Amino acid sequence: MTAAVSNTGLALRYTALTDVGLRRSNNQDSGYASSHLLLLADGMGGAAAGDLASSEAVTIIRAVDDDRGGDALTHLNDAVDAANRRLGDLIQADPAVEGMGTTIEAMLWDGEKFAVGHVGDSRAYRLREGRLTQLSADHTFVQSLVDEGRITREEARHHPHRSLLLRAMLGRDDFEADYSWLQPQLGDRYLLCSDGLSDMVEDEAITRALASASIDVAATELVRLALEGGGADNVTVVIGEMVAADTLDEESELACADGVPQLVGAAAESPQPRRGATVDVHDSTASFSADPEELRYAPLAPSRWRFARWGAALVVLLVAVGAAGWYAYQWTQDQYFVSESDGSVAIYRGVDADLPFITLRHLESTSDVEVDSLPSFQQGQIRDGIEATDLADAEQIVRDLREDVVPDPTTTPTPTPAVPTETPLAPGTTVAP
Ligand code: CA
Asked: What spacing in Å lies between the alpha carbon of 237 and ligand 1's midpoint?
């Protein structure tokens, strides 16, 4: 049991729990919980280095737990930056681990409020008066689609690219995390979790589990639900609860922590850098390449130069697609067909089909042959479009059609007056030549 008394009369009770899940062979998540710090890291980069990344990050960031006083947000920011530099150093020292990285979810309690740090798609939730609120915004591709109103939150849950990260701690100079302050209340419960929970368990079930009699029961229940939901990934939960400092002794039996900080997952196993490893993380035939975690993070460039190369490749691809499209369009504009325009037989240049935003046909000329004056079979052909090999062929088709015109019984024979009578034209009327 543990907690820290503060000038608000609140104390933080904590617990942390992790499980490797049902499909993975090792745990790449790391979690840490103490009376001042809740911390979670979900490592990436495949089995080669995901555990190393999350372990190193947690080991460095948890040092803020011993470094109190001053501004908690500055302390946390400095610690997170130090962890990022550490990953950069490891990658520089051993190219075999290039591409490793981790998400970070951290809440540092300064006795009054929390300094919160976040990067990636691990989540922070708050349960207050029975209502669950997600505090962190996923740094994912699907979340950007949700923000733009292109898909709903529910659609994002089932999107094939839902795990694609846009930001993470990768040891790069352009690293950037989100920071904020959070004001807790008595009774609040805070949950940090890896996507092994949030992907497997719906919000309603998380709400019910987090509201369990104690946070230790809640942690067990949440992990159980993730495994029941498929256990496709490592699952880690770090939970904190705001309790009244003076009730701690009576409720101490509700907490599993015995006053010492809890460290779980990869960080508890201290994975070592794989110096001289023979595994190439970019070798698609490497043994771990079937790990879906590899696909998840593949679009994240491990270095700026690789990003530049991908950018150049994308430009080349777009130019090639653009050029192919231009030649295809030019080909369509050498084609002709006969169809209808305003009730008359007409010749069109192009093809009798349109693409979104692109018109592939243009009216070449209109004849004096009315479609309705033709036999119904020809009418159907015209409305479907009659292909021509070239403009001369199209003109020949029109001449052939003129031969097929059925005389109109109501106008034939037309009595023609011997002497035409001049009829005054209405103003604005012109006579066709
Ligand atoms: Ca994960």
From this structure: 12
Supply the mean pLDDT for the chain: 83
pLDDT of residue 355: 73
* Number of Cβ atoms within 10 Å of the Cβ of 195: 26
Statement: residue 285 has pLDDT above 80: no
CA of 392 to the centre of ligand 1 (A): 66
For residue 365, the cross-strand partners are 347
Expressed in angstroms and rounded, the spacing between residue 198 Cα and the centre of ligand 1 is 10
Q: Please state the domain extents for the chain.
A: 10-269, 336-403
Could you write out the three-class secondary structure of 342-381? CCEEEEEEECCCCECCECCEEEEEEEEEEHHHCCHHHHHH
Of 70-84, 240-254, 278-292, 332-346, the least confident: 278-292
Q: Report d(CA 20, CA 233) in Å as an integer.
A: 7
The pLDDT, as a whole number, for residue 3 is: 46
CA of 388 to the centre of ligand 1 (A): 60
Token digits for 282?
């970019």
Which fold is adopted by the domain 10-269?
Answer: Phosphatase 2c; domain 1 (3.60.40)
Structure tokens at 241: 């609860």
User: What are the tokens at 371?
Assistant: 């479609």
227 has pLDDT over 60 = yes
Indicate whether 145 pLDDT > 80: yes
Token pair of 117, please?
Answer: 């740090």
Tell me, in angstroms, the distance from the centre of ligand 1 to residue 416's CA: 90
Based on its alpha-carbon atoms, the radius of gyration of the chain, rounded to whole angstroms, reads 35
Report CA(233)–ligand 1 centroid distance (Å): 6
pLDDT, residue 308, reads 60
pLDDT confidence of residue 298: 45
Residue with the larger pLDDT of the pair 392 and 433? 392
Q: Which residues of 399-429 are buried (b: 16+ CB within 10 A; e: fewer)?
A: eebeeeeeeeeeeeeeeeeeeeeeeeeeeee
